[in-house]
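Example for tutorial group B:
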């Protein structure tokens, strides 16, 4: 099964949306493999956004992700990366589908509630930043046989 990294950003935590968003992933059929409630430090924030170093939004983004705790998660399922991206909606909330997470809760591109890996390669890199292999749990979930062949 494919794994993806999902982070509920400070605005999701501060607005009390954590449980509601997690429920959306569960209802979609994803299986939770790991979860942490953490305060991101500068080193982790800079590593997470390393590809954006030197861009004008790098420093504000790093400062923002460190401003409040986040919920770091690994979800797994068939086509997990693509399906999670669809569930989250467009990065710009104003362009996100009305039923998507960002379409429902996002107000601004810099406060768009949630981060999700954009590829399997990114998911592997991001998961390794936040989780040790032994922190991820693979287990049989009742009903998995009803989700896909």
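The residue assignment follows.
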């Amino acid at each position: 099964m494919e794994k993806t990294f999902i982070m509920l950003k400070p605005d999701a935590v501060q607005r009390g949306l954590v449980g509601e968003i997690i429920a959306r992933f569960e209802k979609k059929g994803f299986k939770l493999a790991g979860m942490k409630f953490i305060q991101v430090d500068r080193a982790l924030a800079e590593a997470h956004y390393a590809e954006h170093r030197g861009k004008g939004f790098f420093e504000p983004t790093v400062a923002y992700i460190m401003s409040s705790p986040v919920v770091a998660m690994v979800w797994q399922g068939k086509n997990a990366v693509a399906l999670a991206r669809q569930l989250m909606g467009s990065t710009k909330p104003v362009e996100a589908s009305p039923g998507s997470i960002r379409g429902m809760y996002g107000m601004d591109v810099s406060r768009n509630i949630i981060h999700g890996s954009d590829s399997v390669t990114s998911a592997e890199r991001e998961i390794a930043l936040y989780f040790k292999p032994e922190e991820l749990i693979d287990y049989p979930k009742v009903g998995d046989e009803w989700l896909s062949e």
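The radius of gyration is 15 Å. Compare this with the pattern of hydrophobic and polar residues in the output above.
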